[in-house]
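hiii so um. not sure if this is the right channel but i have a protein structure encoded as tokens and i wanna go backwards to a sequence. like what aa goes where. can anyone help
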């Protein structure tokens, strides 16, 4: 097959026109194309250009060699091999089953491949299976009844299950682990378009079904899930892991332990530190969620084109303040919801989510400010303590509800009074003064950043724009040491994924899970 780049399709056309436009680009008849497959699709909405789709396709033709003339067809190349390959002997054996702590994307993908290799992993998850977790989360949003072990942060699928299922990443993937991740997702029910659209997402509603299907496949291949089960201690002898203690009483022996614990496993971080695992604090970001009408974002991004359904538009914004602090949008959710994502009593954190259709009518994203040990201190848990204090303030400020404020009042340091109901929030909320939440330098940075973003997206900084807090868990505040074999200073323990400080989001966490699988296999063989 050959790969053909830069095929432009007007937004008024549908993909049935793609074959015709490809033939036109190659100057051949349409019936000469035996097979066509989309490799990449993006929307070009840059100013001073007509909005259009840009495709890259793989095409099967007779006499493909003649199209590999760079002078005549500079946009054509041989379709490269882009398959994930990792070879190992069949029928490899372990005397003790590998144990994976955490059923988020890192843990699930590591477990999936271990099960596929016949190693019968045991997956330990403190929360519930996803269909039960969904009911528990809905109860929390409606009545405020929090289950500290099963919530938006903890449970099968991890925190990403309730965050739109965004799969975009800037990581270079020369080994095609990302493609393997997407292939497994698709085999478990994700839309096939995630393989080629520029900013792929699954949607919270579909992702919950995909996670369930992954679990069932892992079980079919010999894996075992233990829900409502918490890692409470480690058995370490001669600097090697020998087993785990679950729920303070149950002991299971193991030689290979994967710690895919997620970025919110604070008690587990402290336990691991006490057991001698080396770790350090790391920078992260904190801030607020911002809500706009999706129509306003669409008008800006699509230049007021309304006659064609281009879907809910997204944005990505960055700014450096006068004090040299980075302010940027994070986890943007087109057509989504702001959700109460708390996991501890007396502390409040929020997140954003969207369903697959992204049709709530409102856009939201986190607007966050980078913080580091110069802000919160040099001790291992200084960043985590910084998060906890912000979440305690947020809980008190909103009297247990999500605290929110109009941007005009935030800038003027005035308490907001309720003027309207907010349909795109999951969980109760209260209007207040968010200036009381952060140190002055964060408030100043956020206000300066949002005003700057108003120069890029008209209406972004309007007076009645709603802000909500606190967005405190953008990434892990901890990085657990691991060597070039991805093993901690305790032999047999593999820190993995976002919680260990080596990933950020669903895709990179899943890819890290695959990397750890590879190292476990390499150690065995």
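sure thing!! here u go:
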């Amino acid at each position: 097959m050959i790969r053909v780049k830069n095929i432009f399709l007007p937004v008024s056309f549908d993909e049935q026109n793609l074959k015709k436009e490809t033939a036109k680009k190659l100057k051949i008849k349409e019936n000469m194309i035996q097979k066509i497959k989309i490799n990449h699709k993006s929307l070009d909405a840059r100013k001073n250009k007509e909005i259009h789709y840009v495709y890259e396709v793989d095409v099967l033709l007779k006499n493909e060699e003649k199209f590999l003339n760079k002078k005549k067809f500079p946009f054509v190349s041989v379709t490269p091999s882009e398959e994930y390959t990792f070879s190992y002997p069949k029928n490899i054996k372990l005397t003790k089953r590998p144990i994976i702590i955490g059923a988020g994307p890192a843990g699930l993908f590591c477990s999936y491949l271990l099960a596929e290799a016949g190693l019968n992993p045991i997956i330990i998850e403190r929360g519930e299976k996803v269909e039960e977790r969904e009911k528990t989360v809905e109860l929390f949003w409606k009545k405020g009844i929090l289950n500290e072990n099963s919530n938006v942060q903890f449970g099968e699928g991890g925190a990403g299950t309730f965050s739109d299922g965004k799969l975009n990443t800037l990581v270079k993937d020369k080994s095609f682990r990302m493609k393997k991740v997407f292939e497994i997702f698709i085999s478990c029910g994700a839309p096939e378009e995630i393989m080629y659209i520029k900013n792929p997402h699954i949607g919270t509603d579909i992702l919950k079904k995909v996670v369930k299907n992954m679990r069932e496949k892992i079980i079919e291949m010999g894996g075992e899930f233990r829900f409502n089960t918490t890692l409470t201690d480690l058995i370490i002898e001669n600097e090697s892991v020998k087993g785990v203690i679950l729920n303070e009483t149950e002991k299971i022996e193991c030689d290979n332990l994967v710690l895919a614990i997620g970025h919110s496993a604070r008690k587990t971080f402290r336990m691991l530190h006490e057991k001698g695992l080396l770790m350090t604090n790391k920078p992260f970001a904190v801030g607020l969620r911002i809500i706009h009408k999706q129509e306003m974002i669409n008008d800006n991004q699509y230049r007021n084109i309304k006659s064609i359904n281009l879907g809910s538009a997204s944005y990505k914004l960055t700014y450096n303040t006068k004090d040299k602090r980075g302010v940027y949008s994070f986890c943007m959710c087109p057509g989504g919801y702001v959700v109460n994502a708390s996991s501890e009593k007396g502390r409040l954190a929020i997140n954003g989510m969207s369903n697959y259709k992204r049709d709530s009518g409102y856009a939201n994203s986190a607007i966050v400010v980078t913080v580091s040990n110069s802000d919160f201190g040099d001790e291992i848990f200084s960043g985590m303590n910084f998060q906890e204090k912000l979440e305690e303030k947020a809980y008190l400020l909103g009297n247990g509800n999500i605290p929110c404020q109009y941007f005009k009042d935030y800038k003027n340091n005035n308490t907001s009074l309720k003027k309207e109901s907010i349909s795109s929030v999951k969980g109760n909320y209260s209007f207040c003064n968010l200036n009381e939440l952060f140190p002055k330098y964060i408030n100043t940075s956020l206000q300066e950043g949002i005003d700057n973003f108003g120069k890029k997206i008209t209406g972004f900084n309007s007076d009645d724009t709603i802000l909500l807090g606190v967005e405190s868990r953008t990434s892990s505040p901890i990085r657990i040491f691991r060597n070039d074999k991805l093993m901690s200073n305790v032999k047999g323990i593999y820190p993995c994924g976002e919680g260990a400080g080596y990933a950020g989001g669903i895709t990179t966490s899943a890819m890290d899970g695959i990397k750890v699988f590879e190292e476990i296999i390499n150690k065995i063989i």
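oh and The first strand starts at residue 2 and ends at 10.
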